[in-house]
Amino acid sequence: MQKDLPELRLLTTPTAQLQVSGATLVDVARVAGVSPITVSRALNQPHLVRPNTLAKVQAAVQETGYAKNMQPGALASSRSKLVALVLPTISNQIFADMVQGTSDTLTEAGYQLLLGFSGYEEWREEILVETILSRRPDGIILTGTLHTDSTRRRLQQAGTPVVETWDMTASPIDTVIGFSHEEVGHATATHLLQRGRKRFAILTAGDPRAARRNQGLQVALAKQGISVMATHTAAVPGTLPAGREGAARLLDAHPDLDAIVCSSDNLAHGALIEAGSRGLDVPGKLAVMGFGDLNFSSHTVPPLSTVRVDGARIGAAAAQAILERLDGAAKAQPARSVNTGFELIQRGSS
Amino acid sequence: MQKDLPELRLLTTPTAQLQVSGATLVDVARVAGVSPITVSRALNQPHLVRPNTLAKVQAAVQETGYAKNMQPGALASSRSKLVALVLPTISNQIFADMVQGTSDTLTEAGYQLLLGFSGYEEWREEILVETILSRRPDGIILTGTLHTDSTRRRLQQAGTPVVETWDMTASPIDTVIGFSHEEVGHATATHLLQRGRKRFAILTAGDPRAARRNQGLQVALAKQGISVMATHTAAVPGTLPAGREGAARLLDAHPDLDAIVCSSDNLAHGALIEAGSRGLDVPGKLAVMGFGDLNFSSHTVPPLSTVRVDGARIGAAAAQAILERLDGAAKAQPARSVNTGFELIQRGSS
DNA sequence: CTGTTAGCGCTTTCAA
DNA sequence: TTGAAAGCGCTAACAG
C-alpha cells in the first residue's frame, strides 16, 4: 500500500554537490494525516500528543525514513543545543580531561560540543570567539580570565552565557569556575618548606597560569628569605623529554638542588626520569613536584608529589553552569564564582 | 546624523530567556541603501561587488553593529561549515594529537569542529552519529573501521563525506586514512627478534586496535616458534601508574622477561619507571616498547623504543579529505585509502 | 490535544 | 554588478 511518499529529490547545489534530500516534517505530516506542528510535538514533546496520534506519526516516520534536522529548529527557536569550548591547546592533559568532563555533561543533556583552539594567543581567541558567536551557540566556555577588551565586550553584548575556567577573578564576564593559581604556588612553598627544603628550582612551561603559580611560590619563599636558585622555561606544552632536559640543565648548574617545582606532571615525570638516571634519591635527596594528576588521562606515580586539580570536574561544572543559566534564564541568576580548589598530594617521606 | 538604525529588539523566547537580538542583513541593507543580497555578497564574495558599494555596506555594518549569523545561511545553502569528529575518548594522547591536527586544518579552511565521544562502544557511536547527522555537518570523521551495520547504512544514505581513521580496511564506508595494526605488530616482533629477544610479555589496554597489534605480534613470533609468556590487560585508557603496576605483575611472575611490548607510551613509561626501581638495565637486560610517540602532546624518552604514529597528520589528512570531497564534489571522486604508515624508533643498543 | 499563520535570517535563482 | 521573489525546514504564538 503505497501512500503518497515523498519522492527522493535530487538537489544540485550551486557548489555542485549532488545530494539526496530526505523526507521533511511536512512529508511525515502528510503521510500521518496530521499537521507538521503535531509531528514536531510528537518528536520533541511526545507527552503533549495523544498516544493514538503519536503512533500514527511514528509509523509515518518509519514509512518516510524521516531523519531529524535540528538546523531549521535552531533558527526558529534560537536554541542551537550547541556549547562552545575554547582551549589554548589540547596538548596538555589537563585540558583533555576537561574536554571529556564537558562533553559528558553536555551529551547527557542533549547538547553538543563545538571545540576551538586559541594557541595561548589573545588575538586568536578574539577571532575564534567571533566565529563561534556567528553560530549562535547556547553557551561559551573559555579558558582563563585573560581576554582582550574587545572579546569581553563582544561576549557581553552577545547575551550568551559565558563561563571562564581554570582561574579566579574579581571581575568575571559572567561565571568563573576554577581556583587561585597564586594559592597553589603558596601551598606548594609551604609544603616544601615544612619538609626542610631550601634549595629550589622551577621547571616551567610558558603558560600564563603556570607563571602565576610560580609567582605565588616565589612570594611565599621570599617571606622565609629564600629565593629560587634557577628557573628553566620550556615551550608549551611541556613534554616529558623537555622535562628531562630541563631537569638536566638545572641539576648540571646546581647539583645541590633539593626541590624542583614543575608546572605539569609531564615535565615532572621527565625530571623524575633524569633524577633516576643520575642515581639521585627522590624524594630523599631531591623533591620533585608536579601539577595535574588527572582523573581520566594521566596520573603521577610515586615518588612524585603533585598538586591535584580535577579537570574533568571543572569541565563538567562549566557545562552545568551553562545549562542552568539556560533553563533558569527567567530568574535572571547573578554571576557566580565557583572555587574548585586543589589538593596537594604528598608522596614519600620527603 | 541618525539614519534609521534598527531598534534593539528585546525578544522573550518561550523558554523565557531575555536576549538582545542584533541587526540583521536587512537592517544593514536598509542603512546602506542596497538590497539584502548585495550585503550578503559584500560580506561573503566581496569581489562580486563594486568597491563603492562595498564601502557603503561596510559603513552600514559598522553603524548597525551587525554580527554575522551563519545559521540561516547554513539552512539555505545546505553548507554548515561544520565537520564532526567521533573519538572513543580524548584520554589517550594519540587522539589529542589528532584533534589538534584536525582542528588546525579545518580552522584554516573556515570550518569548525564538532566533537563527540563513543567510549569505545558501538551503540554509543550509533546514537552519536545519528545526533551528529541531525545537525547536517559537511563531513564526519570516525575512529576505526568497526561500526554497526546500521551506522554504516545511515552514514551512506546521508550522503555526507565520511573518513574512517586509524586503520585500514578493504571495505571503507567512504575514505580511510590510517595504517595496518597487524603490520605494526609484525614489525615490532621482527625488530625485537633481530635483537635477540626471546622472552616476551604484552602489556596492553583493552583497545580493539591494540588487540590487533598484539595479534600481529603473536603471529610473527609464532613463526619463530616463540609464544608470549604473559599478557597483562589494563583498563582503557592506559595510564602511567597502570603501566607501572602491570609491569610489576609481569616481572614478579616472570623475572627473566627480556621484552615488554606495551600498547601505549603511557603504559611503557610506567613500565620503564618500574624497571628502574628494580634496578633492571633497560634496554640492556629488558627491552620496553611503546606506541605513539606523538608530535604535539607526548614523546618518549630513551631508553624506551617505540612505534611512532603521527596522530596530527592523520587528523589533518582526514580533514583535508573531507574538504577535497566538498569542493570537488562535482567530480564524484572515488573512495580512497591512504596508508599513513608508522615508524619504528629504536633507542639504545638492545 | 491539535491546527493555523507567520515567520527565523539568510541564499538561491533568475532576470535586469 | 545589482535586485526581486521564493524558499530552506522547522517552531512560536495563539486560537480552537
From TrEMBL, chains A, B:
It comes from the Bacteria. Pfam families: LacI, Peripla_BP_3. CDD domains: HTH_LacI, PBP1_GntR. Keywords: DNA-binding, Transcription, Transcription regulation. Residues 23-77 form the HTH lacI-type domain. The keyword Protein transport does not apply. One of its GO terms (molecular function) is DNA-binding transcription factor activity. This is Substrate-binding domain-containing protein.
